[in-house]
Design goal:
This protein is an alpha/beta fold. Helices cover 30% and strands 10% of the residues. It contains eight helices and eight strands, in the order H-E-H-E-H-H-E-H-E-H-E-E-H-E-H-E. The protein has helices at residues 9-12, 106-116, 127-132, 134-142, 162-180, 196-204, 224-234, 251-266, and strands at 93-99, 122-125, 146-149, 186-187, 208-209, 214-215, 240-244, 270-272. The strands form two sheets. Strands 1, 2, 3, 6, 7 and 8 form a six-stranded parallel sheet that branches. A two-stranded parallel ribbon has the order 4-5. Helix 7 (224-234) links the parallel strand 6 (214-215) and strand 7. Helix 2 (106-116) runs parallel beside helix 8 (251-266), helix 4 (134-142) packs across helix 5 (162-180) and helix 7 (224-234) packs parallel to helix 8 (251-266). The radius of gyration is 17 Å and the shape is globular.
Amino acid sequence: MKKDQLLSRRTLLTGVAALGAAGAGGALAAGLGHGPSRPPAPLPAPGPPQRSPLKPSAYRLQPLTGYGAPRAAPGRPPVRSEPILRMTGRGRTMMLTFDDGPHPEYTPLILDTLAKHEVRATFFVCGEMADYNRDLLTRMADEGHVVGNHTWSHPLLTKLSRRRIRSEMERTSEVVERAYGEAPRWFRAPYGAWNRAAFQIGAELGMEPLAWTVDTLDWTTPGTGTIVDRVEEGAAPGVVVLSHDAGGDRSQSVRALRRYLPELLDSGYHLTVPRRRLI
């Protein structure tokens, strides 16, 4: 079985495969092997407490979902009326995405697991967190991961003025560009709450809106096994999985990734990152 190979940022920039979208429905669960459960590897003992600019549960709400397929996007990002929910492509291809980080404790553990299995993922970062942890954005770039824009402070965009929405997006893009090496090409609205202003401003900043197909709801800390089951039961070609690497205690998310990632790979899935035609 071929696994996704780690690429440098320079190699990633040459990608020309487009990410599109089919309808939100029709994602049939793939047949994953469910053999005897392996006990999760213990997390390393945490180091000294590190300052985080955000309170753990200050912005955690029930995400809003239920969008259809986007229109075609020739040449440059269009102003969409719906976010992209799925990816196109042949075979058993999926995407793993992580929101709200980077976090100094949990994000490195997630990156270590991805590196162990030679898999790349997409991280939608909050500018306020990224500004405190720029070294992790640099590592993401070096290891071939994609970094997207998740606004500066994780607000509900539908309650903000256009000026505030632009500020939230622009500040985050600036931090990402300085630490990651290029401006983000993808953005995700906090809570999955999109409006026309968000789509318009995102397109003006050169970004496509990417949502998700499978929500692990890991922010509710439902238990490692439950997170694993949600990923494996929802696995199907084109699926985009939503998890979190910050915003609270993400030890369950780390342990779950260590379990379901090798299961997906052994079942023939190819874990990749979004790409669109470079302008």
